[in-house]
Design a protein that fits this description.
Glucose Oxidase, domain 1, nine-stranded mixed sheet, Aminopeptidase, alpha/beta
Length: about 550
Amino acid sequence: MQLCLRNSPHLTRTIAAATFLAALASGCARAESADSAWWGHVRVLAADSMRGRRTGTDEYRRAADYVAATYRRLGVDSLGPAGYFQEVPFVARTIDEARSKVEIAPPGGAPWSLRPGDDVTFQKSFDMDRDVDAEAAFVGYAVVAPEAHYDDLKGQDLRGKIVVFVSAGPSAVPNPLRAHAQFAAERWARLRAAGAIGWIVIPNPASMEAGWSRYAANRGAAGLALDDSAGEEFAGQRFGMRLNPASAPALFRGSPHTWEEIARLAKDGSPMPSFPMPVRIRAHVEERSWRVRSPNVIGVIRGSDPKLRDEYVLLSAHLDHLGVGAPVSGDSVYNGAMDNASGVATLLEVARALEHGQRPRRSVLIATLTGEEEGLYGSADLVLHPPVPMARIVAELNVDMVLPIVPLEHMIVFGLDESTLGDRATEVARRHGVATQRDPEPQRNLFIRSDQYNLIRAGVPSVSFVTGYASGTQAEEILRRWRRDRYHAPSDDLEQPVDHAAAALWNEILIDLIRDTADRVDRPRWKSGSYFARFATSAAR
Protein backbone atom coordinates (compact mmCIF):
# COMPACT_ATOMS: atom_id res chain seq x y z
CA MET A 1 0.00 0.00 0.00
CA GLN A 2 1.51 3.30 -1.08
CA LEU A 3 0.46 5.73 1.65
CA CYS A 4 1.77 9.28 1.67
CA LEU A 5 1.28 11.46 4.74
CA ARG A 6 1.13 15.11 3.75
CA ASN A 7 3.16 18.06 5.06
CA SER A 8 2.42 20.07 8.19
CA PRO A 9 -0.90 22.00 8.34
CA HIS A 10 0.84 25.39 8.17
CA LEU A 11 2.94 24.43 5.18
CA THR A 12 -0.05 22.85 3.43
CA ARG A 13 -2.16 25.97 3.85
CA THR A 14 0.65 28.20 2.64
CA ILE A 15 1.38 26.13 -0.45
CA ALA A 16 -2.33 25.67 -1.27
CA ALA A 17 -3.06 29.38 -1.02
CA ALA A 18 -0.05 30.28 -3.15
CA THR A 19 -0.99 27.64 -5.70
CA PHE A 20 -4.52 29.00 -5.95
CA LEU A 21 -3.33 32.57 -6.59
CA ALA A 22 -0.95 31.31 -9.25
CA ALA A 23 -3.74 29.31 -10.84
CA LEU A 24 -5.98 32.34 -11.20
CA ALA A 25 -3.15 34.43 -12.56
CA SER A 26 -1.89 31.96 -15.10
CA GLY A 27 -4.80 29.54 -15.54
CA CYS A 28 -2.57 26.73 -14.31
CA ALA A 29 -2.57 24.80 -11.03
CA ARG A 30 0.95 23.64 -10.15
CA ALA A 31 1.45 21.05 -7.45
CA GLU A 32 4.80 20.30 -5.90
CA SER A 33 6.95 18.25 -8.24
CA ALA A 34 6.53 15.15 -6.07
CA ASP A 35 2.74 15.33 -6.32
CA SER A 36 0.52 14.24 -9.17
CA ALA A 37 -1.60 16.74 -11.08
CA TRP A 38 -4.61 15.07 -9.45
CA TRP A 39 -3.30 15.78 -5.97
CA GLY A 40 -2.45 19.33 -7.01
CA HIS A 41 -6.15 19.96 -7.74
CA VAL A 42 -7.16 18.41 -4.41
CA ARG A 43 -4.65 20.58 -2.55
CA VAL A 44 -6.11 23.74 -4.05
CA LEU A 45 -9.77 22.87 -3.60
CA ALA A 46 -9.44 21.42 -0.09
CA ALA A 47 -7.07 24.06 1.31
CA ASP A 48 -8.12 25.78 4.54
CA SER A 49 -8.30 29.03 2.58
CA MET A 50 -11.25 27.56 0.64
CA ARG A 51 -13.12 27.24 3.97
CA GLY A 52 -15.03 24.14 2.93
CA ARG A 53 -16.52 25.48 -0.36
CA ARG A 54 -20.05 25.83 1.02
CA THR A 55 -22.66 26.53 -1.65
CA GLY A 56 -23.38 30.23 -2.03
CA THR A 57 -20.19 31.47 -0.32
CA ASP A 58 -17.33 33.54 -1.73
CA GLU A 59 -15.04 30.55 -1.21
CA TYR A 60 -17.26 28.32 -3.31
CA ARG A 61 -17.16 31.00 -6.01
CA ARG A 62 -13.35 30.99 -5.86
CA ALA A 63 -13.35 27.21 -6.24
CA ALA A 64 -15.66 27.57 -9.26
CA ASP A 65 -13.29 30.18 -10.72
CA TYR A 66 -10.43 27.73 -10.28
CA VAL A 67 -12.32 24.99 -12.12
CA ALA A 68 -13.26 27.38 -14.95
CA ALA A 69 -9.65 28.54 -15.24
CA THR A 70 -8.55 24.90 -15.47
CA TYR A 71 -11.15 24.19 -18.17
CA ARG A 72 -9.85 27.16 -20.13
CA ARG A 73 -6.23 26.07 -19.78
CA LEU A 74 -7.07 22.54 -20.91
CA GLY A 75 -8.99 23.76 -23.95
CA VAL A 76 -12.44 22.66 -22.73
CA ASP A 77 -15.06 24.72 -24.60
CA SER A 78 -17.85 26.70 -22.99
CA LEU A 79 -21.42 26.22 -24.17
CA GLY A 80 -22.73 29.73 -24.58
CA PRO A 81 -22.51 33.44 -23.82
CA ALA A 82 -22.54 32.82 -20.05
CA GLY A 83 -19.25 30.97 -20.39
CA TYR A 84 -18.74 27.99 -18.11
CA PHE A 85 -21.12 29.13 -15.38
CA GLN A 86 -24.73 28.03 -14.97
CA GLU A 87 -25.99 30.17 -12.10
CA VAL A 88 -28.30 28.25 -9.77
CA PRO A 89 -30.78 30.24 -7.62
CA PHE A 90 -31.30 29.29 -3.97
CA VAL A 91 -33.37 30.35 -1.00
CA ALA A 92 -31.29 30.28 2.18
CA ARG A 93 -33.03 29.79 5.55
CA THR A 94 -32.09 29.85 9.20
CA ILE A 95 -34.21 29.09 12.27
CA ASP A 96 -34.39 31.45 15.24
CA GLU A 97 -34.29 28.72 17.87
CA ALA A 98 -34.65 31.15 20.77
CA ARG A 99 -38.09 32.12 19.46
CA SER A 100 -39.13 28.67 18.20
CA LYS A 101 -40.51 25.70 20.12
CA VAL A 102 -41.98 22.23 19.71
CA GLU A 103 -44.28 20.63 22.28
CA ILE A 104 -45.66 17.13 22.59
CA ALA A 105 -49.16 17.25 24.09
CA PRO A 106 -50.69 13.97 25.37
CA PRO A 107 -54.45 13.80 25.89
CA GLY A 108 -55.39 15.13 29.30
CA GLY A 109 -51.76 15.53 30.33
CA ALA A 110 -49.22 18.31 30.60
CA PRO A 111 -47.27 18.97 27.38
CA TRP A 112 -43.48 18.78 27.34
CA SER A 113 -41.02 20.65 25.18
CA LEU A 114 -38.40 19.28 22.80
CA ARG A 115 -35.13 21.19 22.96
CA PRO A 116 -33.49 22.37 19.73
CA GLY A 117 -30.15 20.64 19.34
CA ASP A 118 -30.51 18.14 22.16
CA ASP A 119 -33.79 16.69 20.91
CA VAL A 120 -34.66 18.13 17.50
CA THR A 121 -33.43 20.02 14.47
CA PHE A 122 -35.77 21.88 12.13
CA GLN A 123 -35.95 21.28 8.41
CA LYS A 124 -34.92 24.19 6.19
CA SER A 125 -35.60 22.89 2.68
CA PHE A 126 -39.07 24.48 2.52
CA ASP A 127 -41.01 27.37 4.07
CA MET A 128 -42.72 26.04 7.20
CA ASP A 129 -45.89 27.41 8.76
CA ARG A 130 -45.22 29.69 11.68
CA ASP A 131 -47.68 27.76 13.88
CA VAL A 132 -48.83 24.14 13.64
CA ASP A 133 -51.05 22.08 15.94
CA ALA A 134 -51.82 18.59 14.65
CA GLU A 135 -52.32 14.97 15.61
CA ALA A 136 -49.48 12.53 15.04
CA ALA A 137 -49.40 9.12 13.36
CA PHE A 138 -46.54 6.62 13.07
CA VAL A 139 -46.14 5.24 9.54
CA GLY A 140 -43.17 2.87 9.85
CA TYR A 141 -40.68 3.69 7.09
CA ALA A 142 -43.18 5.92 5.19
CA VAL A 143 -42.39 3.81 2.12
CA VAL A 144 -44.87 3.10 -0.65
CA ALA A 145 -43.67 0.73 -3.40
CA PRO A 146 -46.60 -0.75 -5.35
CA GLU A 147 -44.21 -2.73 -7.57
CA ALA A 148 -43.09 -4.66 -4.47
CA HIS A 149 -46.64 -4.81 -3.04
CA TYR A 150 -45.56 -2.71 -0.08
CA ASP A 151 -47.42 0.25 1.47
CA ASP A 152 -46.75 1.70 4.94
CA LEU A 153 -49.65 4.13 4.51
CA LYS A 154 -52.34 1.61 3.67
CA GLY A 155 -55.40 1.89 5.90
CA GLN A 156 -54.11 4.99 7.70
CA ASP A 157 -56.13 8.19 8.03
CA LEU A 158 -53.41 10.82 7.68
CA ARG A 159 -55.58 13.81 6.81
CA GLY A 160 -54.27 16.90 8.60
CA LYS A 161 -51.70 14.88 10.56
CA ILE A 162 -47.98 15.07 11.14
CA VAL A 163 -46.46 11.68 10.38
CA VAL A 164 -43.59 10.11 12.28
CA PHE A 165 -41.29 7.64 10.52
CA VAL A 166 -37.87 6.02 10.76
CA SER A 167 -35.35 7.09 8.13
CA ALA A 168 -34.72 3.58 6.81
CA GLY A 169 -36.31 1.13 4.41
CA PRO A 170 -37.98 -2.28 4.52
CA SER A 171 -35.91 -5.26 3.42
CA ALA A 172 -39.02 -6.57 1.68
CA VAL A 173 -38.49 -3.95 -1.04
CA PRO A 174 -35.44 -4.69 -3.22
CA ASN A 175 -32.67 -2.17 -3.62
CA PRO A 176 -32.42 0.26 -5.42
CA LEU A 177 -36.23 0.61 -5.56
CA ARG A 178 -36.10 0.78 -1.75
CA ALA A 179 -33.69 3.72 -1.91
CA HIS A 180 -35.81 5.49 -4.54
CA ALA A 181 -38.92 5.17 -2.34
CA GLN A 182 -36.99 6.83 0.51
CA PHE A 183 -35.97 9.91 -1.46
CA ALA A 184 -37.49 12.89 0.36
CA ALA A 185 -39.49 14.15 -2.62
CA GLU A 186 -40.85 10.67 -3.35
CA ARG A 187 -41.85 10.16 0.29
CA TRP A 188 -43.52 13.55 0.48
CA ALA A 189 -45.50 13.03 -2.74
CA ARG A 190 -47.05 9.88 -1.22
CA LEU A 191 -47.66 11.50 2.17
CA ARG A 192 -49.19 14.61 0.68
CA ALA A 193 -51.54 12.51 -1.44
CA ALA A 194 -52.63 10.77 1.78
CA GLY A 195 -53.41 14.11 3.41
CA ALA A 196 -50.40 14.61 5.72
CA ILE A 197 -49.25 18.17 6.47
CA GLY A 198 -45.76 17.48 7.82
CA TRP A 199 -43.34 14.96 9.23
CA ILE A 200 -41.00 14.04 12.07
CA VAL A 201 -38.04 11.98 10.87
CA ILE A 202 -36.19 9.70 13.31
CA PRO A 203 -32.75 8.59 12.04
CA ASN A 204 -32.17 4.86 12.17
CA PRO A 205 -29.71 4.37 15.07
CA ALA A 206 -28.26 1.32 13.32
CA SER A 207 -27.07 3.30 10.29
CA MET A 208 -26.29 6.83 11.54
CA GLU A 209 -22.92 7.62 9.99
CA ALA A 210 -21.85 10.31 12.42
CA GLY A 211 -23.62 10.56 15.77
CA TRP A 212 -26.47 12.94 16.54
CA SER A 213 -24.18 15.40 18.31
CA ARG A 214 -22.09 16.07 15.19
CA TYR A 215 -25.20 16.50 13.05
CA ALA A 216 -26.93 18.81 15.55
CA ALA A 217 -23.80 20.87 16.18
CA ASN A 218 -24.06 22.39 12.69
CA ARG A 219 -27.79 23.08 12.74
CA GLY A 220 -27.21 26.85 12.93
CA ALA A 221 -25.86 26.96 9.36
CA ALA A 222 -28.24 28.22 6.71
CA GLY A 223 -30.08 25.54 4.80
CA LEU A 224 -30.59 25.94 1.07
CA ALA A 225 -33.40 25.02 -1.29
CA LEU A 226 -33.73 25.48 -5.03
CA ASP A 227 -35.46 28.80 -5.80
CA ASP A 228 -37.35 27.58 -8.86
CA SER A 229 -41.08 26.90 -8.95
CA ALA A 230 -40.48 24.24 -11.61
CA GLY A 231 -38.38 22.31 -9.11
CA GLU A 232 -40.70 22.67 -6.09
CA GLU A 233 -41.07 19.20 -4.58
CA PHE A 234 -42.34 19.98 -1.08
CA ALA A 235 -45.50 21.92 -1.89
CA GLY A 236 -48.06 21.54 0.88
CA GLN A 237 -45.56 20.60 3.57
CA ARG A 238 -46.19 22.79 6.60
CA PHE A 239 -43.80 21.29 9.16
CA GLY A 240 -40.66 19.17 9.24
CA MET A 241 -38.13 18.23 11.90
CA ARG A 242 -35.63 15.54 12.76
CA LEU A 243 -35.82 13.86 16.19
CA ASN A 244 -32.84 12.51 18.13
CA PRO A 245 -33.32 8.74 18.48
CA ALA A 246 -32.30 9.09 22.12
CA SER A 247 -35.30 11.37 22.64
CA ALA A 248 -37.77 9.14 20.80
CA PRO A 249 -38.98 6.93 23.71
CA ALA A 250 -41.05 9.74 25.22
CA LEU A 251 -42.81 10.39 21.91
CA PHE A 252 -44.03 6.76 21.82
CA ARG A 253 -45.31 6.79 25.40
CA GLY A 254 -48.90 5.52 25.39
CA SER A 255 -48.65 4.16 21.83
CA PRO A 256 -49.28 0.50 20.95
CA HIS A 257 -45.53 0.00 20.40
CA THR A 258 -42.43 1.35 22.16
CA TRP A 259 -39.52 3.10 20.47
CA GLU A 260 -37.22 0.29 21.60
CA GLU A 261 -39.37 -2.18 19.68
CA ILE A 262 -39.44 0.06 16.61
CA ALA A 263 -35.65 0.56 16.67
CA ARG A 264 -35.09 -3.22 16.80
CA LEU A 265 -37.28 -3.69 13.73
CA ALA A 266 -35.54 -0.87 11.84
CA LYS A 267 -32.10 -2.38 12.44
CA ASP A 268 -32.56 -5.01 9.73
CA GLY A 269 -35.51 -3.57 7.82
CA SER A 270 -38.12 -5.86 9.38
CA PRO A 271 -41.83 -5.18 8.78
CA MET A 272 -43.03 -2.34 10.93
CA PRO A 273 -46.46 -1.38 12.27
CA SER A 274 -48.31 1.84 11.48
CA PHE A 275 -50.68 3.37 14.04
CA PRO A 276 -52.19 6.62 15.33
CA MET A 277 -50.20 8.17 18.18
CA PRO A 278 -52.01 9.58 21.25
CA VAL A 279 -50.27 12.96 21.09
CA ARG A 280 -50.53 16.29 19.31
CA ILE A 281 -47.54 18.15 17.88
CA ARG A 282 -47.59 21.87 18.63
CA ALA A 283 -44.90 24.00 17.05
CA HIS A 284 -44.01 27.65 16.61
CA VAL A 285 -41.18 28.27 14.14
CA GLU A 286 -39.48 31.58 13.38
CA GLU A 287 -37.52 31.56 10.12
CA ARG A 288 -35.36 34.05 8.28
CA SER A 289 -34.77 33.67 4.55
CA TRP A 290 -32.84 35.37 1.76
CA ARG A 291 -31.70 34.56 -1.77
CA VAL A 292 -28.26 33.49 -3.01
CA ARG A 293 -26.81 32.20 -6.27
CA SER A 294 -24.11 29.62 -6.82
CA PRO A 295 -22.85 28.23 -10.15
CA ASN A 296 -22.51 24.86 -11.75
CA VAL A 297 -19.35 24.93 -13.88
CA ILE A 298 -20.00 23.21 -17.22
CA GLY A 299 -17.78 22.76 -20.25
CA VAL A 300 -17.76 20.52 -23.30
CA ILE A 301 -15.18 18.47 -25.16
CA ARG A 302 -16.44 18.34 -28.73
CA GLY A 303 -16.78 14.93 -30.30
CA SER A 304 -14.90 13.93 -33.44
CA ASP A 305 -17.61 11.95 -35.24
CA PRO A 306 -19.92 14.03 -37.49
CA LYS A 307 -22.80 11.61 -36.81
CA LEU A 308 -22.33 11.31 -33.03
CA ARG A 309 -20.86 14.66 -31.94
CA ASP A 310 -24.34 16.10 -31.21
CA GLU A 311 -24.88 13.41 -28.58
CA TYR A 312 -23.30 13.82 -25.15
CA VAL A 313 -21.87 11.76 -22.32
CA LEU A 314 -22.12 13.69 -19.05
CA LEU A 315 -19.28 13.41 -16.52
CA SER A 316 -20.14 15.03 -13.19
CA ALA A 317 -18.76 15.64 -9.70
CA HIS A 318 -20.00 17.98 -6.99
CA LEU A 319 -17.76 20.88 -6.06
CA ASP A 320 -19.45 22.01 -2.85
CA HIS A 321 -18.89 20.81 0.70
CA LEU A 322 -20.03 21.88 4.20
CA GLY A 323 -18.09 25.10 4.77
CA VAL A 324 -17.12 26.19 8.28
CA GLY A 325 -18.97 24.60 11.19
CA ALA A 326 -18.77 23.42 14.76
CA PRO A 327 -15.16 22.71 15.78
CA VAL A 328 -14.03 19.12 16.17
CA SER A 329 -10.74 18.79 18.06
CA GLY A 330 -10.23 22.53 17.53
CA ASP A 331 -10.72 22.47 13.73
CA SER A 332 -13.81 24.15 12.25
CA VAL A 333 -13.03 23.98 8.50
CA TYR A 334 -14.82 21.09 6.80
CA ASN A 335 -12.32 20.83 3.93
CA GLY A 336 -13.99 18.04 1.96
CA ALA A 337 -10.76 16.65 0.50
CA MET A 338 -12.23 13.25 -0.35
CA ASP A 339 -15.82 14.58 -0.39
CA ASN A 340 -15.52 15.78 -3.07
CA ALA A 341 -12.35 17.61 -4.08
CA SER A 342 -11.11 14.13 -5.01
CA GLY A 343 -13.94 13.65 -7.50
CA VAL A 344 -13.51 17.11 -9.04
CA ALA A 345 -9.78 16.45 -9.40
CA THR A 346 -10.54 13.17 -11.19
CA LEU A 347 -12.98 14.99 -13.47
CA LEU A 348 -10.29 17.54 -14.38
CA GLU A 349 -7.75 14.82 -15.05
CA VAL A 350 -10.23 13.00 -17.31
CA ALA A 351 -10.82 16.28 -19.17
CA ARG A 352 -7.07 16.74 -19.63
CA ALA A 353 -6.68 13.22 -21.03
CA LEU A 354 -9.60 13.63 -23.46
CA GLU A 355 -8.43 17.03 -24.68
CA HIS A 356 -4.82 15.98 -25.23
CA GLY A 357 -5.42 12.48 -26.57
CA GLN A 358 -7.59 11.16 -29.35
CA ARG A 359 -10.94 12.94 -29.28
CA PRO A 360 -13.95 10.77 -28.34
CA ARG A 361 -16.58 10.29 -31.04
CA ARG A 362 -19.43 11.72 -28.95
CA SER A 363 -19.09 15.00 -27.13
CA VAL A 364 -18.43 14.93 -23.39
CA LEU A 365 -20.04 17.40 -20.98
CA ILE A 366 -17.83 18.12 -17.98
CA ALA A 367 -19.93 19.40 -15.05
CA THR A 368 -18.82 20.34 -11.55
CA LEU A 369 -22.03 20.84 -9.62
CA THR A 370 -23.15 23.03 -6.74
CA GLY A 371 -25.59 22.30 -3.91
CA GLU A 372 -25.11 18.53 -3.73
CA GLU A 373 -24.66 18.55 0.03
CA GLU A 374 -27.82 20.66 0.37
CA GLY A 375 -30.04 18.22 -1.54
CA LEU A 376 -28.64 17.44 -5.03
CA TYR A 377 -29.75 20.90 -6.19
CA GLY A 378 -27.07 21.60 -8.79
CA SER A 379 -27.96 18.47 -10.73
CA ALA A 380 -31.68 19.22 -10.27
CA ASP A 381 -31.14 22.62 -11.87
CA LEU A 382 -29.12 21.07 -14.69
CA VAL A 383 -32.08 18.78 -15.45
CA LEU A 384 -34.56 21.67 -15.28
CA HIS A 385 -32.36 23.88 -17.46
CA PRO A 386 -30.11 21.53 -19.45
CA PRO A 387 -27.17 23.08 -21.31
CA VAL A 388 -28.01 20.80 -24.25
CA PRO A 389 -31.32 19.04 -24.99
CA MET A 390 -31.84 16.26 -22.45
CA ALA A 391 -32.69 13.78 -25.21
CA ARG A 392 -29.11 14.16 -26.47
CA ILE A 393 -27.51 13.21 -23.14
CA VAL A 394 -27.03 9.48 -23.61
CA ALA A 395 -25.38 8.64 -20.27
CA GLU A 396 -24.00 10.09 -17.06
CA LEU A 397 -20.98 8.98 -15.05
CA ASN A 398 -20.81 10.59 -11.61
CA VAL A 399 -17.72 10.70 -9.41
CA ASP A 400 -18.29 11.30 -5.69
CA MET A 401 -15.70 10.48 -3.02
CA VAL A 402 -13.04 8.60 -4.95
CA LEU A 403 -11.52 7.61 -1.56
CA PRO A 404 -8.04 6.47 -2.62
CA ILE A 405 -7.08 5.50 0.91
CA VAL A 406 -6.70 1.78 0.19
CA PRO A 407 -5.38 -0.03 -2.90
CA LEU A 408 -8.02 -0.02 -5.62
CA GLU A 409 -9.13 -3.64 -5.96
CA HIS A 410 -12.93 -3.21 -5.88
CA MET A 411 -15.25 -0.49 -7.21
CA ILE A 412 -18.81 -0.17 -5.93
CA VAL A 413 -21.01 0.83 -8.87
CA PHE A 414 -24.37 2.36 -7.97
CA GLY A 415 -26.76 1.40 -10.75
CA LEU A 416 -24.68 -1.64 -11.69
CA ASP A 417 -27.69 -3.77 -12.65
CA GLU A 418 -29.96 -1.06 -14.04
CA SER A 419 -28.44 -0.31 -17.44
CA THR A 420 -25.80 -1.52 -19.86
CA LEU A 421 -23.48 1.11 -18.37
CA GLY A 422 -23.00 -1.24 -15.44
CA ASP A 423 -21.90 -4.03 -17.77
CA ARG A 424 -19.45 -1.73 -19.52
CA ALA A 425 -18.06 -0.48 -16.20
CA THR A 426 -17.47 -4.07 -15.12
CA GLU A 427 -15.64 -4.91 -18.36
CA VAL A 428 -13.47 -1.79 -18.32
CA ALA A 429 -12.56 -2.19 -14.64
CA ARG A 430 -11.71 -5.85 -15.20
CA ARG A 431 -9.19 -4.87 -17.88
CA HIS A 432 -7.42 -2.85 -15.17
CA GLY A 433 -7.51 -5.70 -12.67
CA VAL A 434 -10.34 -4.20 -10.59
CA ALA A 435 -13.59 -5.98 -9.70
CA THR A 436 -16.94 -4.18 -9.59
CA GLN A 437 -19.53 -4.89 -6.92
CA ARG A 438 -23.04 -3.98 -5.88
CA ASP A 439 -23.69 -1.73 -2.91
CA PRO A 440 -22.76 -3.83 0.16
CA GLU A 441 -24.65 -1.47 2.51
CA PRO A 442 -27.92 -0.61 0.76
CA GLN A 443 -29.53 0.79 3.92
CA ARG A 444 -27.18 3.78 3.68
CA ASN A 445 -29.13 4.79 0.54
CA LEU A 446 -26.08 6.01 -1.35
CA PHE A 447 -27.91 5.30 -4.60
CA ILE A 448 -30.10 8.40 -4.02
CA ARG A 449 -27.50 10.54 -2.26
CA SER A 450 -25.43 11.79 -5.17
CA ASP A 451 -26.07 13.70 -8.37
CA GLN A 452 -26.55 10.79 -10.77
CA TYR A 453 -29.94 10.17 -9.17
CA ASN A 454 -31.46 13.32 -10.68
CA LEU A 455 -30.30 12.22 -14.13
CA ILE A 456 -31.83 8.79 -13.50
CA ARG A 457 -35.13 10.46 -12.61
CA ALA A 458 -34.85 12.30 -15.93
CA GLY A 459 -34.49 9.01 -17.80
CA VAL A 460 -30.71 9.08 -18.45
CA PRO A 461 -28.79 5.80 -17.83
CA SER A 462 -26.37 6.73 -15.06
CA VAL A 463 -23.86 5.21 -12.68
CA SER A 464 -21.80 6.47 -9.76
CA PHE A 465 -18.71 5.01 -8.12
CA VAL A 466 -16.97 4.70 -4.76
CA THR A 467 -14.09 2.56 -3.56
CA GLY A 468 -15.17 -0.97 -2.64
CA TYR A 469 -13.80 -3.79 -0.54
CA ALA A 470 -13.93 -7.50 0.10
CA SER A 471 -15.79 -8.43 3.27
CA GLY A 472 -13.59 -9.01 6.30
CA THR A 473 -10.49 -7.36 4.83
CA GLN A 474 -8.28 -4.57 6.12
CA ALA A 475 -9.64 -2.36 3.34
CA GLU A 476 -13.15 -2.72 4.76
CA GLU A 477 -11.94 -1.72 8.22
CA ILE A 478 -10.03 1.31 6.89
CA LEU A 479 -13.00 2.53 4.85
CA ARG A 480 -15.43 2.05 7.76
CA ARG A 481 -13.08 3.89 10.09
CA TRP A 482 -12.81 6.73 7.60
CA ARG A 483 -16.58 7.03 7.42
CA ARG A 484 -16.86 7.05 11.21
CA ASP A 485 -14.05 9.51 11.88
CA ARG A 486 -13.62 11.71 8.78
CA TYR A 487 -16.86 11.68 6.76
CA HIS A 488 -18.45 15.15 6.97
CA ALA A 489 -15.87 16.13 9.58
CA PRO A 490 -12.97 18.61 9.55
CA SER A 491 -10.54 15.68 9.46
CA ASP A 492 -11.45 15.03 5.80
CA ASP A 493 -8.52 17.30 5.02
CA LEU A 494 -5.12 17.35 3.38
CA GLU A 495 -3.41 15.65 6.31
CA GLN A 496 -4.97 12.22 5.82
CA PRO A 497 -3.15 9.29 4.21
CA VAL A 498 -3.63 9.08 0.45
CA ASP A 499 -2.81 6.20 -1.87
CA HIS A 500 -1.65 7.99 -5.02
CA ALA A 501 -1.38 4.76 -7.02
CA ALA A 502 -5.06 4.06 -6.30
CA ALA A 503 -5.99 7.59 -7.39
CA ALA A 504 -4.08 7.18 -10.65
CA LEU A 505 -5.84 3.85 -11.32
CA TRP A 506 -9.23 5.46 -10.63
CA ASN A 507 -8.44 8.09 -13.25
CA GLU A 508 -7.32 5.51 -15.83
CA ILE A 509 -10.52 3.49 -15.40
CA LEU A 510 -12.76 6.56 -15.68
CA ILE A 511 -10.91 7.77 -18.79
CA ASP A 512 -11.32 4.38 -20.44
CA LEU A 513 -14.98 4.11 -19.45
CA ILE A 514 -15.78 7.59 -20.78
CA ARG A 515 -14.08 6.72 -24.08
CA ASP A 516 -15.87 3.37 -24.21
CA THR A 517 -19.24 5.08 -23.69
CA ALA A 518 -18.56 7.97 -26.05
CA ASP A 519 -17.14 5.86 -28.87
CA ARG A 520 -19.73 3.07 -29.08
CA VAL A 521 -22.32 3.55 -31.81
CA ASP A 522 -25.08 2.14 -29.60
CA ARG A 523 -26.32 4.31 -26.77
CA PRO A 524 -26.36 2.87 -23.24
CA ARG A 525 -29.82 1.53 -22.51
CA TRP A 526 -31.91 0.64 -19.48
CA LYS A 527 -32.35 -3.05 -18.85
CA SER A 528 -35.88 -4.37 -19.30
CA GLY A 529 -36.18 -5.34 -15.63
CA SER A 530 -35.07 -1.99 -14.25
CA TYR A 531 -37.65 0.02 -12.35
CA PHE A 532 -35.99 3.19 -13.66
CA ALA A 533 -36.56 2.40 -17.33
CA ARG A 534 -40.00 4.01 -16.90
CA PHE A 535 -38.39 7.43 -16.50
CA ALA A 536 -36.83 7.17 -19.94
CA THR A 537 -40.26 6.27 -21.36
CA SER A 538 -41.84 9.28 -19.63
CA ALA A 539 -39.08 11.62 -20.82
CA ALA A 540 -39.59 10.50 -24.42
CA ARG A 541 -43.29 11.46 -24.42
